[in-house]
Amino acid sequence: MSDPNKLSRREREIMDVIYRSGKATVSQVVEGLASPPSRTAVRTLLGILETKGHLQHGQQGREYVYSPTRPRRSAGRSMLRNVVGTFFDGSVEKALAAHFTDPQAKLDEAELDRIAALIDATKRNQGDLL
Prior knowledge:
Blueprint: H1 9-21, H2 26-32, H3 39-51, E1 55-60, E2 63-68, H4 72-87, H5 92-100, H6 109-129
Antiparallel strand pairs: 1-2
Helix pairs in contact: 1-3, 2-3
């Protein structure tokens, strides 16, 4: 089985559709994708996401209804850890530096203030652990 923490672009798109609506049938996923593959391909990808542990399904009439197994935030943290580990040698500092120096990353003053507040809170909380 492939790494459950690694999602293809299409798998991420499908998860986004399902997270936006909370649950979805194959037809709803197809409708929610910008350039959907065939229904058969979507069914296959939903099965893969279920095998990887990201989705579960129930039945509504003749259709399966897929829903996430974890809240979006929890899944996002797991994916972020994977990205930081894979592309930035496990360094959050390197990941943030890459983001902050990216010309396409447009952070407004309010976002920068919230980031600074998170850093300050993290410093205080880690000080308690030392």
